[in-house]
């Protein structure tokens, strides 16, 4: 960390520690705000003054840096070294100075730099545009009333309302808190939830322990709060550390595989290049020429265009997906999406509709009773935490039933917020006469566990096992009809205390249930069937009860014969769970940790797992999964950790996304197989030529031009279309498969190279040092054209040109390269490259060799597919 950054960080720390100590009044004064918040004019003035609330790390942005990144890579560095050596040998100490090779080298560096730069810019701006399509909003109090504002537009002095699932939109000082727990692991790496309080904290010393201060980038796990924004954007503590919120950088199997393939090629190079060097040195005598040749071969074999082609393939895929209202936040996720073979999903709001309807309110015997709705309403309305779909459904129904007057009849004294292990929430209300009551609602089992009494027909009785069983039965019967049930309990004789905690949820009176209809999205069934057809299995991981899960899954065509509950999962060892995963499609009553554990179990069994969810309780499994999918209506934290966001309700985009991912993968894989096999073959050809020829088979400059033209031909690859057959099943990187392909098709290209040598040597008699230039020209052209034409055979499992044609872009890029090569070889331009103009009749031989190559490749492909049941 630089001095400057450290200073900035220390200043931020000092300031926060100071603010932690002052009173609320001093705080308001200092930030020139009040409990009512800022007014719009002040807010927009401050937005102007402090700028948008965005952290930019200043790292990736400057143009100069991006240009440098495009030019400085191992490939170009080697080229520049070769250029420097050439400058000395060809120009400075040469008797007849020749600039050609030197200039060509510089040109190659420039061209490859420009191509990388342009492609990289295009991909980045596409990714940026996609990012901008998802916005996170936050409740801000302005002018005394609460409104939704984009997190980017929050300014210092704003008063914000926070609930579980929210991300803190800046560094804040809390002025009201209710059982507030935050996750600061972004800053500290410590994943324990940390409780926060309002009011001055005179003792606080260590920055992350200040218990009335919240930090940009942390999120609220449970509870609710009101807070004043202290700083935004780069001025926040997180900003001072110049750390962006990318928590999901290191998990892509994609990058790992690319690296392993690059390493493979480099290993080959390390073995082969010295051999080639020695072979040339022995047969030709000049160590400098041999060395230069060896180095350029090494350069030629470097997969330098790999990252560029990969990124632009991914960017292309991301753009296609955005047309289907699917936003890809991390480009690598597209490929993982195509690789996914298990999709885990939660239920409400993802598989089911965004709106759920309150269908029933009933007493403990299952008879309709409006009193239950009243209590449920009071609980949902007065609680200040996140109002989820169920709360919204309760409030809507109550308003329809004209229960709104209750809003005025009671005041909230306190609440005990929802969390996913208790699965319930409580409010403490006081009526006009000062009578207080505690109302709790939540999952049936969890409510029963805190009830000492039950109210039957207006009479409160101690609860018995029989009554418990009966209540359970009513809930289960409803569940099996697809109705999700929440139990409601209350008590009147509560302690005379000011604040309440979880302990107060005891000895309660069970009064009844509310039931919700939570029907599947219309598109869910077809989407799941389509995924199934394409080799992706859907598994439901819900916090809801087994009964509801079974009902919904039954309607969606997910097998329901084997299910597990959170409690059962808890008892299993990792091995047992791993085994169970293979047959179980429904997991119910899971806690967030259990959801994560199930995802992990699938991964252990070698599956590539997607997780789709929208709640706070989904953030752990979303992070754990290979690809995290969320929806636009999800809570902030879920959207933040997800890799892919669906903007539309229609789940069919999932399958389309998977197909898009596989298409992207197929194009990347084609490119990869083509270039590794080409390089591998070339290495052998060069070795053979080096041993048998009395002159260098190519000059360094030829290798470089070949290299750049071959790369250029491939630039159309990301735009190519893909055979339906190749994308029917999930595809993973298959490194042994790539190696096998490389050897077989590499050797085929060597065979053709040798045929070409024979033509040049015996038919044209380019067999002595005087004729070296002609030989070089002949192989130069064949090298480029053969690698370019064979693209068309390799890109499809079918017969090229006839049964399946490439996309326009690929046709153009390959044709252009062939034409340019012919022009270089057969016209005076050849002289620029130290080559004599080639004899025109050679064009016939080129055509013949190409035809032979295509036919042989086609036959070999046929055999390969029959044996391996896979193609690119
Ligand atoms: N607002 C609420 N009030 C009371 N209880 C709730 C509330 N929200 C959830 N619960 C209880 O907690 C359980 C788990 O919560 P929730 O359904 O959100 O989990 P989930 O894993 O996201 O499930 P799903 O797959 O249905 O989305 C619910 O079944 C319900 O019993
Ligand atoms: Mg949920």
Automatic annotation (TrEMBL):
Gene3D superfamilies: Calcium-transporting ATPase, cytoplasmic domain N (3.40.1110.10), Calcium-transporting ATPase, cytoplasmic transduction domain A (2.70.150.10), Calcium-transporting ATPase, transmembrane domain (1.20.1110.10), HAD superfamily/HAD-like (3.40.50.1000). GO terms for molecular function: ATP binding; ATP hydrolysis activity; P-type magnesium transporter activity. Mediates magnesium influx to the cytosol. PANTHER family: CALCIUM-TRANSPORTING ATPASE. It comes from Ruminococcus flavefaciens 007c. Its EC number is 7.2.2.14. InterPro entries: ATPase_P-typ_cation-transptr_C (IPR006068), ATPase_P-typ_cation-transptr_N (IPR004014), ATPase_P-typ_cyto_dom_N (IPR023299), ATPase_P-typ_P_site (IPR018303), ATPase_P-typ_TM_dom_sf (IPR023298), ATPase_P-typ_transduc_dom_A_sf (IPR008250), ATPase_P-type_domA (IPR059000), HAD-like_sf (IPR036412). Residues 18-91 form the Cation-transporting P-type ATPase N-terminal domain. GO terms for cellular component: plasma membrane. SMART domains: Cation_ATPase_N. It catalyses: Mg(2+)(out) + ATP + H2O = Mg(2+)(in) + ADP + phosphate + H(+). Belongs to the cation transport ATPase (P-type) (TC 3.A.3) family. Type IIIB subfamily. The keyword tRNA processing does not apply. This is Magnesium-transporting ATPase, P-type 1. It is a multi-pass membrane protein. It is found in: Cell inner membrane. Keywords: ATP-binding, Cell inner membrane, Cell membrane, Magnesium, Membrane, Nucleotide-binding, Phosphoprotein, Translocase, Transmembrane, Transmembrane helix. It is an enzyme of class 7 (translocase). The chain crosses the membrane at residues 71-93, 99-118, 264-283, 295-315, 741-764, 806-830, 842-860.
